[in-house]
Amino acid sequence: MFYIKLVTPGSSFQRIVNTDSRMSAQILKRGLLRTAVKQSLTMTTMKYATASGSKVYETLDILVPKPFVYHVLLNRPKSLNAVNRAMWLEIKDCFDELGTNPDCRVVVLSGSGKMFNAGIDVSLLMDFAPRLAGCNDVAQKCKMLKKEILMCQESLSAIELCPKPVVAAVHGACIGAGMGMICSADIRYCTTDTWFQIKEVLMGLAPDIGTLQRMPKIMGSDSLVRELVYTCRKLQAAEALQTGFISKTFDNQENLLAGSISLAEEIASRSPVAVQGSKLNLNYSRDHTTQEGLDHISMYNQAMLQSEDLITSVVAQATKSKEPPVFAKL
Question: Which of 41, 149, 169, 293 qualifies as a FRET site for 17, CA 20 to 30 Å off?
Fold first, then answer.
């Protein structure tokens, strides 16, 4: 059970409050201290099982390994988790739902079977080709293609736009569409035998689902990104780690998932107001000037610095509590 300790006379927190009357007045005025004293919040530990109340998907499994940690598993192992139409649609629906789910604070994204993702399912292209060929006018063909491209883009953008941090746990191989997928994640871990490949040029097209837009901002070398795109060569895990595309590697898939879930659990223990606000502002600042980013966080924190999470965190730090702070659902 996690709880907030009660304030007792002579305690370290009592002394701190007494020595800073202004801080004490502000806390008491908001009524947050009274709330902290009167309420004991508990957190129920969930087994590593299918998320209760979650939607049932054809191509995804949704699991809960730890409190507030959701695990999205690409579940087409016989097809090496290749992305078909159902998966495109379900990824967007899933991350849109998790983005508003108060029981979810962090998402781990992984693949079942031999590899993380083998790219776009060829059957999807074969099904689409006859429909495209049936259009005689170039404008109709362009309209049809635009609709398909936007569907794919919006699917992967849902991962990036999800306010909850997403940890991609990659094993085996990550190809084509899979690269666009993990480029939309916040953090990328992999096994030491993993390799990555931007394969679209080899197939006769330019990547159009976000890899070209996101990967140069992730890696420190624009030159290397261009090399990988133009040649379609494989990027091995060691080089991916060295160049900053991956932040940590593990010996095997079991340790990879354990490490990813452990990281997610640590993030989930932090203030959801602070974590989600940080993701929002990191994404905003990446795509804007420094001053625009500063202006954005200034406006954002005018509201969020009034959150109860701030007081809860300050109390925990000030009292050096051995118990972790408990934050309300967001």
Answer: 41
Phi, psi (deg, nearest 5) at residue 110 = -145, 180
Which of 26-32's residues contact partners 24+ apart within 8 Å by CB, and which partners?
27/311, 30/308, 30/311, 32/308, 32/311, 32/312
Spatial distance between the Cα atoms of 64 and 62, rounded to a whole number of angstroms:
7
- H-run or E-run covering 313: helix 308-319
Neighbour count for residue 87 (Cβ, 10 Å) = 27
Q: What are phi and psi of 278, to 5 degrees?
A: -65, -45
178 touches 118 (CB < 8 A): yes
Helix axes 308-319, 272-286, angle to 10 degrees: 110
Are the beta carbons of 111 and 73 closer than 8 angstroms?
yes
In one-letter notation, the amino acid at residue 17 is V
* Contact of 20 with 27, CB cutoff 8 Å: no
pTM here is: 0.83
**Which two tokens mark 278?**
């940080």
Using DSSP's 3-state secondary structure scheme, residue 172 falls into coil
* CA distances for 6 relative to 215, 252, 291, angstroms: 48, 44, 42
**Angle formed by the axes of helices 21-30 and 308-319, nearest 10°:** 140
202-259 pLDDT, tens digit per residue, is 999 999 999 999 999 999 899 999 999 999 999 999 999 999 999 999 999 999 999 9
Looking at the DSSP bridge assignments, the partners of residue 295 are none
| pLDDT tens track for 271-330 | 999 999 999 999 999 999 999 999 999 999 999 999 998 888 888 888 887 788 899 999
